[in-house]
C-alpha cells in the first residue's frame, strides 16, 4: 500500500521521524558516553553499558492506541528498511537513517500455537515463537541487523572505515555476524572465534559459507570470549558480541513483535526464554519496559528465564531470596545439548540484575522468574514438540521444559498463555537428536532416551532379493518389477496396511 492511501491520522507517522538522542550509559557508575565511537565497556570503571534515548519521553507524546496503528499499518508498507526489526525504528535505532539499515529478512518470525496434545501434556496453552526462521536460523540476526546497521551508518558517514568485526560464539552469533558482514563487503570484514568441537557442523558451515575468517580455539565459549575481549582492547576491531549494546537494542524487537502479535494485550501472558550469555533476556525485559512506559502495553508479561543444570549461573544467583545476600559466582559448565547457552560467566549479568529489579518494581510484584531444567527434560520436550508439528531446537526444548516446571510449581497458572522462544532452527542441532535416537550420548550428559520418542530409518533390503538398483545401475524389466513388488510388500507388512480389494 502507498503512503497516500493510508488513513489521514496515520500518514504522517508511517515514515519514522523521531529524533532520538542515543547515549551509552554505564550500569555501575552511570557514566554517559557519546555513541560516535564504538564502545563496549565503561572507560571509567569497566562495567557493561546499555544504550538509552535521552529523547525517549517524546515518544510518550503519541498515545498507545496511535502507536498500535502506526506499527500495524506500517506492516503494509513495502519499504525494505521497515520490513524487519526496524518496523519499530523509533524504539530500536532512531539515529540510523533508513538508507543505512541492513535488511536481510530478519524478524517477524512465526508464532505457532501448540496442538491440543502438546497443550494437555504441558498443562497450559502455549505458542512457540520460531526465531529459527530468521535468515541465519537463530534470533542472533535481530541483534546483528542492529549492530551492523549502525556500523554501516558509521562507515557511510565516514566516521570509521574498513571495519574488522570480531566475535566469540557458541555458533549462532558467528553465523549471524558473518552473514551480515558479508553483505556489507568490502568495507566490513568479519572474523569469528569458536570453541573447538563445541559448535555443531551446521553452525560451523555457516560462517565458512559466508566467507568469514574462522578460528577454532581450545576450551569453551568463556575462553573464546576472553580472547575476543583482549583483541578488542588492543587492536582496531569492532566487537559483535552482546557486550556490544547495539545487539541488545535489536533483540528488543522480539518483545515488540510478541506485543503486536497479541494485539498489545499482555495480561495473563508468559514469555519464556533460554539464558546463555543473558543478552536475550536483557533485551526481552528492556523491550517490554519501553512499550509499557509509552502506554503501548498496559501490563508487563511474566518472564521466565531457563537454564540447564549444566550451565546455571543465573539460576543459582536467584536461588537466594534475599537480594542483599545474592552473590554472583560464575560456574564451570558441563556439556549441554543447549549448547548455544553453555556459558558459565554471562557477560550481561549486570544488565540482568539491574533490569530484573526494575521490571519487578515497575510491575509492582515479582514478574521475572528463573528455572533450571535437566538435560533429559530438554531433549524429551524438544522431541515431543517436534513430534507435534514444531521445529524447535534444543533451546526451544529447554524453554518448554522450563515452562512445564514453572507450571508445576504454580509460578504459572492454567488460565495463562505462554510464548516459548525456540531461539534457533531444529536443524542446527540435529546431531543431538541423532545421539538420542542412537542412544549414544556421552555419559556426562546424563540422557537416556525414552523409547517412545526414538525414531530411526528402516533400510528396506529384502533378504530374498537378488538384485537391487544402484546409482547409475538401474534394474532391467522383470528384475525391476520384482524389486518394486518385494519392497512394497515388506513396507505394507511393516505398516500393517490393508490390501485394496
Ligand atoms: C545465543 C543463543 C542462546 C542464548 O542467548 P543469550 O542471549 O546468550 O542468553 C540461546 N539459544 C540459541 C539458539 C542461541 O544462539
Ligand atoms: Zn562506569
Automatic annotation (TrEMBL):
Q: Which reaction does it catalyse?
A: O-phospho-L-homoserine + H2O = L-threonine + phosphate
Residues with the N6-(pyridoxal phosphate)lysine modification: 140
The UniProt entry's sequence similarity note says: Belongs to the threonine synthase family.
Q: Does the keyword Transport apply?
A: no
Sorted alphabetically, the Gene Ontology BP terms of this entry are: isoleucine biosynthetic process; L-serine catabolic process; L-threonine catabolic process; threonine biosynthetic process
Q: Any idea of its EC number?
A: 4.2.3.1
* Domain (Tryptophan synthase beta chain-like PALP) ranges: 104-417
What is the enzyme's class at the highest EC level? lyase
The cofactors it requires, by name, are: pyridoxal 5'-phosphate
Write down what this protein is called: Threonine synthase
Does the entry feature the keyword Lyase, yes or no? Answer: yes
Q: Which UniProt keywords apply?
A: Amino-acid biosynthesis, Lyase, Pyridoxal phosphate, Threonine biosynthesis
What Pfam family is a match, any one? PALP
Pathway(s) of this molecule: Amino-acid biosynthesis; L-threonine biosynthesis; L-threonine from L-aspartate: step 5/5
Query: What GO molecular-function term can you cite, just one?
Result: threonine synthase activity
Amino acid at each position: 500500500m502507498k503512503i497516500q492511501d493510508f488513513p489521514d491520522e496515520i500518514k504522517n507517522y508511517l515514515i519514522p521521524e523521531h529524533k532520538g538522542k542515543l547515549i551509552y550509559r554505564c550500569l555501575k557508575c552511570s557514566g554517559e558516553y557519546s555513541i560516535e565511537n564504538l564502545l563496549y565497556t565503561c572507560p571509567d570503571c569497566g562495567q557493561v553499558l546499555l544504550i538509552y534515548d535521552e529523547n525517549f519521553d517524546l515518544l510518550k507524546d503519541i498515545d498507545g492506541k496511535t502507536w498500535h496503528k502506526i506499527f500495524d499499518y506500517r506492516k503494509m508498507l513495502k519499504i525494505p528498511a521497515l520490513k524487519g526489526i526496524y518496523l519499530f525504528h523509533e524504539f530500536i535505532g532512531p539515529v540510523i537513517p533508513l538508507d543505512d539499515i541492513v535488511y536481510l529478512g530478519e524478524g517477524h518470525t512465526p508464532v505457532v500455537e501448540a496442538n491440543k496434545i502438546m497443550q494437555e501434556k504441558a498443562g497450559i496453552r502455549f505458542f512457540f515463537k520460531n526465531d529459527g526462521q530468521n535468515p541465519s536460523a537463530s534470533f542472533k540476526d535481530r541483534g546483528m541487523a542492529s549492530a551492523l546497521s549502525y556500523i554501516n551508518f558509521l562507515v557511510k558517514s565516514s566516521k570509521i572505515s574498513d571495519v574488522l568485526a570480531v566475535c566469540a560464539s557458541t555458533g549462532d552469533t558467528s553465523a549471524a555476524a558473518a552473514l551480515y558482514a558479508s553483505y556489507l563487503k568490502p568495507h566490513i570484514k568479519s572474523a569469528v572465534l569458536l570453541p573447538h568441537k563445541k559448535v555443531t557442523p551446521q553452525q560451523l558451515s555457516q560462517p565458512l559459507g559466508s566467507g568469514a575468517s574462522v578460528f577454532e580455539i581450545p576450551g569453551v565459549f568463556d575462553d573464546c570470549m576472553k580472547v575476543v575481549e583482549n583483541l578488542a582492547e588492543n587492536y582496531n576491531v569492532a566487537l559483535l558480541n552482546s557486550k556490544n549494546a547495539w545487539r541488545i537494542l535489536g533483540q528488543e524487537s522480539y518483545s515488540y513483535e510478541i506485543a503486536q502479535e497479541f494485539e498489545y494485550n499482555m495480561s495473563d501472558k508468559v514469555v519464556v526464554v533460554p539464558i546463555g550469555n543473558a543478552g536475550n533476556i536483557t533485551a526481552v525485559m528492556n523491550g517490554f519496559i519501553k512499550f509499557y512506559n509509552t502506554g503501548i502495553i498496559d501490563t508487563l508479561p511474566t518472564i521466565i528465564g531457563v537454564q540447564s543444570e549444566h550451565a546455571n549461573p543465573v539460576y543459582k544467583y536467584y536461588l537466594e531470596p534475599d537480594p542483599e545476600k545474592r552473590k554472583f559466582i560464575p560456574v564451570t559448565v558441563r556439556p549441554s545439548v543447549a549448547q548455544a547457552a553453555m556459558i558459565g560467566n554471562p557477560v550481561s549479568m549486570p544488565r540482568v540484575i539491574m533490569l530484573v529489579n526494575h521490571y519487578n518494581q515497575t510491575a509492582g510484584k515479582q514478574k521475572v522468574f528463573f528455572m533450571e531444567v535437566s538435560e533429559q527434560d530438554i531433549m524429551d520436550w524438544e522431541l515431543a514438540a517436534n513430534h507435534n508439528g514444531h521445529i524447535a531446537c534444543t533451546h526451544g526444548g529447554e524453554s518448554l521444559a522450563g515452562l512445564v516446571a514453572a507450571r508445576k510449581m504454580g509460578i504459572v497458572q492454567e488460565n495463562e498463555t505462554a510464548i516459548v522462544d525456540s531461539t534457533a532452527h531444529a536443524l542446527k542441532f540435529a546431531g543431538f537428536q541423532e545421539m538420542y535416537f542412537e542412544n549414544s550420548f556421552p555419559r556426562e550428559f546424563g540422557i537416556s532416551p525414552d523409547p517412545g520418542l526414538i525414531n530411526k530409518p528402516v533400510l528396506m533390503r529384502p533378504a530374498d532379493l537378488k538384485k537391487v538398483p544402484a546409482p547409475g545401475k538401474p534394474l532391467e524389466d522383470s528384475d525391476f518389477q520384482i524389486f518394486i513388488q518385494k519392497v512394497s510388500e515388506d513396507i505394507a507388512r511393516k505398516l500393517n496396511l490393508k490390501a485394496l480389494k
